[in-house]
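hey m, so remember when u said the tokens were messed up on ur end? i reran from scratch. heres the input so u can diff it against urs
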Amino acid sequence: MNNENRNRASHARRRPEQTTPVSRARTQRPVTAETKPAVQRYSAGVSRTSAPKPSAPAKTRAVAPAPKANSRKAAVKREQQLVKERKNARTEALWQQEVVRVRGGIDGAMFAIILILVALGSITVFSASYPEAVRKTGDGMTYIRSQIGYVLLGFACMGIAVWFPIEKWRRWAPVTAYSIAAVLLIAVLFIGTSEGVTKRWIDLGPVNVQPSEVMKLAIILMIAWYFDKYEDRMNTPRQNWKIQYQWNTVLPIVILGGACGLVLIGKHLSGTIIVGMIGLLMLIVGGCKLKWLFATGIPLGLGAIGTFLALNPYALKRITTKLDENADKLDELYQTTQSIYAIGSGGLFGVGLGESRQKFSYLTAAHTDFIFAIWCEEWGFLGAVALIILFILFMWRGYVIALRAPDKFTMLTAFGITTHVGIQAFFNMCVVADMFPNTGITLPFFSYGGSSLVVLMVEMGILLAISRQYYKKKSDLRKK
């Protein structure tokens, strides 16, 4: 009897251990929002049968969910971004230790290219404008006399721009130039003079000012100033993407869109396209995010141009005429046809300086928009190639100056000025060669005109002023 009681007592002591697997199996139910806290307290060793109190609020029973895959990817991406920023900071620090800012003379190669372009342009203006001057005034020197005056005024403005300190350009010029250009573009709608259906010039007595030319320089300075001043706000952390989108994309597009809109209301479509392309390339180089820029800017630009073409049938007709194979070559395409005749007449070596035949009232605007056709006729295919190479050398040297610029404002300004000359020369040559629809685009340094040449020479002065300040390696200075 004592043995039986002793066995029962020992069996009662061992029962909890023997029944543990069974009790665990009973308590392991599917984990839900209600049972998950009890299982976690069980694993912590508080009690196998403990359960949350009914009166406990739901937020005390909730457990933070496991990190999602997107969160982990975002954390990894942020870590990679931090590593990249630290690496860039180290590289920048080493670069700052290796180089020194140098102030010297202007870029000699760029100055020589500018002189050659101005000289060749003046000679071509005299050759192309002589018959028109004789027909209108009886004096064949009328246009070239005015052009020489514009050249001298342009060189004077270029000298002032070279002498003017870059810091003052940065402080005063952008907003001032943008405001003046905006006022002139509004004023031209009321007091402007026109040729055809468009008002593009303001008559100031001895000279006619074309406000769109002023805006080309103003938009370059304004965008460069904006990127230099608000670079930190444009690159805010990705968590504040709305603020970043506002400073990185919306405000630059507002600045560019305002300039393009003011030029467009003056019915100057070609000027609008040039201003827009200069600004767009500067926004890309300056650091705007491409997906935001294209998603916002491209639809707005295409919508504005489409609306303009719908409201101005004469501009749309130029495009449809270019695409129409059956268009009348002697009526609707007369000017373009005469331009092709001039280019083809030049042959390989040209007919000689001053010997062009198309300038005798066959080709209209021979000394302005279609002066490249006269150049090709008098200098031939080799002369055309030489001029294209000269413009390419100008762009190469301008981009070298931009790469050597000491800060973002000067870099973007040099880039914008160089891009302006390259884009305008490219468009003018394509129009003359019947690759693009006929529209009023002048050839830089060559086409006759006062405001366009003077503003262009101011741009050259700013570019040469930027070339005076650059970075150089300390090791190269020690060698000297």
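this time it looks ok to me. Strands lie at 99-103, 193-195, 198-203, 208-209, 469-473. if urs says something different then somethings off w ur setup not the seq
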